[in-house]
Design a protein that fits this description.
With about 250 residues, the chain is an alpha/beta fold. It has eight helices and seven strands; from the N terminus they run βαβαβαβαβαβαααβ. The protein has one domain: Rossmann fold (3-Layer(aba) Sandwich). The structure holds nicotinamide-adenine-dinucleotide. The site of nicotinamide-adenine-dinucleotide (NAD) has 29 residues, from helix 1 and helix 6.
């Protein structure tokens, strides 16, 4: 069991990569706080874990809301006694529009969830990790955090920002034994990617065709990201700090 006796909080754990990570972390012995803005989805994933004999609870929280972010951390510590792992995974694709056409509300929404939400998670979790003698934080960026995205100015800005937050916290808390790393997934077959494909239906874009553009010729599976998150969460990654891990089938290699 690679996460025996650890307590992990995962945001956006009701779907996609967060759900895959919640199931995997629990199977590896972690007690998991399954957090999502979609309460029913969070409760369902937590139920799936407990039905399999694991430890979990589900809770609704909007990561962009400071009170919710604080509550999700406090509730985790109340239920499980400590916090060792924070996986800031929740995110939205947001509006698809050119920079000059992007709406102000749409920009603020993407930045609020995908960037401020990551900072808020760290803000409230870090004091508990210091108390626990250390911890591991995994932040979800994207290949859109490494290069621009046509039609996704807010998404690219937020995901680049996540890398800045990750590197800064890694510098600040390394001596407290808190490791902070980011994962930059390429196209991963989740409901989010299905929604992006659906917007572009007229051009016959599919999840498969988005994956076909990577050097590996296929989209990734959520479990392939969850396994990297598991490694970063575990003590096996004891010297990994401030790392930005592109897990993208080679998409950003050129
Ligand atoms: N799928 C991809 O190809 C891809 C690629 C790179 C990065 N990402 C990033 O990976 C992360 C997970 O994406 P996914 O593809 O699994 O998406 P998904 O839509 O399947 O799951 C995201 C989950 O986050 C939840 N969520 C949304 N807003 C929230 C909020 N304000 N507070 C709490 N929960 C919220 C949703 O309800 C959903 O359950 C996101 O940060 C996304 O930007 C995805």
């Amino acid at each position: 069991m690679r996460l025996a006796d650890k307590v992990a909080l995962i945001t956006g754990a009701g779907s996609g990569m967060g759900k895959a990570a919640a199931l995997l972390f629990a199977a590896e012995g972690a007690a998991v706080a399954v957090i999502d803005i979609d309460e029913a989805a969070a409760l369902e994933v937590a139920r799936e874990i407990t039905n399999r004999g694991g430890k979990a609870f589900g809770m609704r929280a909007d990561v962009s809301n400071p009170a919710d972010a604080e509550r999700m951390v406090e509730e985790t510590v109340k239920r499980f006694g400590k916090l060792n792992v924070l996986y800031n995974n929740a995110g939205i694709e947001g509006e698809a529009n050119l920079t000059a056409r992007f709406s102000v509300e749409g920009f603020d929404r993407v930045i609020g969830i995908n960037l401020r939400g990551v900072w808020l998670g760290m803000k409230y979790a870090i004091p508990h990790m210091i108390k626990a003698g250390g911890g591991s934080i995994i932040n979800t960026s994207s290949t859109a955090g490494l290069s621009g995205v046509k039609g996704g100015c807010a998404y690219a800005a937020a995901k680049h920002g996540v890398i800045g937050l990750t590197k800064t916290a890694a510098l600040e808390y390394g001596r407290r034994n808190i490791r902070v790393n980011a994962i930059c997934p390429g196209p991963i077959a989740t409901p989010l990617l299905e929604r992006i494909a659906a917007y572009q239906k007229s051009r016959e874009v599919t999840v498969e065709s988005m994956g076909a553009n990577t050097p590996m010729g296929r989209p990734g599976a959520p479990e392939e990201i969850a396994k990297v998150a598991l490694f970063l969460a575990s003590d096996e990654a004891s010297y990994a700090n401030g790392g930005i891990f592109a897990i993208d089938g080679g998409q950003t290699a050129s």
